[in-house]
Amino acid sequence: MAQLGIGIIGCGNISTSYLGLAPLFKALKPVAVADINMDAARARAAEYDIRADTIEDLLSAADVDVVVNLTIPAAHFEVTKRILEAGKHAYSEKPLVLTLAEGETLRELAASQNLRIGSAPDTFLGGAHQQGRAAVDAGDVGQIIGGTCHVMGHGMEAWHPNPDFFFQPGGGPVLDMGPYYITNLIQLIGPVKSVAALATTSFSERMIGNGDRTGEKVSVNTPTNIHALLEFANGATVTLGASWDVWANRHGHMELYGTDGSLFLPDPNFFGGPVEIAGQDNNIEVMPSWDHPFGIANQDARANYRCAGLADMAAAIDAGRAHRCNIDLAVHAVDVMTSILRAGEERCFVELSTTCDRPAALSPDEARALLV
Fewer CB within 10 A of the end CB, N or C, for the chain? Predict the structure, then answer.
């Protein structure tokens, strides 16, 4: 498997995850970082013994094959567009873009340049979610006909020193945390056909509880309490609760209901965790541990294999096959999320204009082949 040179634009906190975990994967060779703040780029480069470039120099560097876009969501479209225009493959943090039109523009540009675009999240490649996928594909609970999933909490203002962008258009729980849930649902069930939603903003202001700005208030200008209904192409219907207005709840992260039983999946924000299953006897049992490398705890008692999607894309470029965290999946997820927000604003059903194939399952052996 050939190694591809990896450049990173954006040297915030998330860059440490990519740079720290990339050495786990044989196809990835980080070579340079860049940021509009060169001091941040130099500090991150020194930390990981790689090169600090200007953005322009990184985009023109001969040893950079794939550029990872770790900028803020509002900048994702313009930065990814620049990456493609520079003739480099692009991989973006979630969400890929903030509008469907932006996603379609990037898809057309990449196709015209014969370049790849990948996008987080890649947590659905984790051992827990791939075990759930295997159970669905094997028919262990019959045909999936419904489900529920919940991402609920009270936002980021208590711990994040600069939480402003979470509460502005482009933020909110659907666009920030929704990618993990919706992408996992698509890989488990298939594409979404239509959505409906109710959306509210329960608190007009949030008070920062950490850092130099403690006590400062932040205005909230995007819905923070969304209850959505998703109709899938296969006929399944799933409810999604996404809220930053909840202090406590007892909802499971993700439950799928089949004609012959039920499947209970852990938080799709993470790679691992227990998977539970029940048959027609209503007896819920933890599924036997599965020998999947992306389910093994490797960081603070959790399985963290961020870069798995990037590594799969690099391997796919080398092998000439489709990659799993692909542009069609990412654009469809954006379509689902923005349609939910539109449905909540207009109090209506919205028919989606995009679709995609389920990404290929990632078996334990295929996952091991990506690792050093």
Answer: C
